[in-house]
Design goal:
mainly alpha, elongated
Length: about 90
């Protein structure tokens, strides 16, 4: 027999649905910053690996990717600072 939903299970479908927008955006920005930092660490690792494995010609590209990803991190920081000032 089908289960009808005429009652509440005590949870929402979207865990961020009931969170105020400012809190939601803070959490998202913090998550994105953490994820961005993980990428930076990975790119640095591969930059060194390329150098060790004789692919020195790729190292500058990975170094540039790190630089660009750090720029993204700086923008995330700026946005996070603006949100926390509200």
């Amino acid at each position: 027999m089908p289960h009808q939903h005429n009652h509440s299970h005590g949870h929402s479908q979207d865990p961020l649905q009931e969170v105020p927008f400012d809190e939601k955006i803070k959490r998202l920005l913090a998550h994105w910053q953490s994820h961005n930092n993980d990428h930076i660490a990975t790119y640095r690792k591969w930059s060194l690996t390329c150098e060790k494995e004789g692919f020195e010609n790729l190292k500058p590209h990975f170094d540039r990717i790190v630089e660009l990803t750090e720029t993204i991190g700086n923008e995330i920081d700026h946005a996070l600072m603006k949100v926390t000032q509200l």
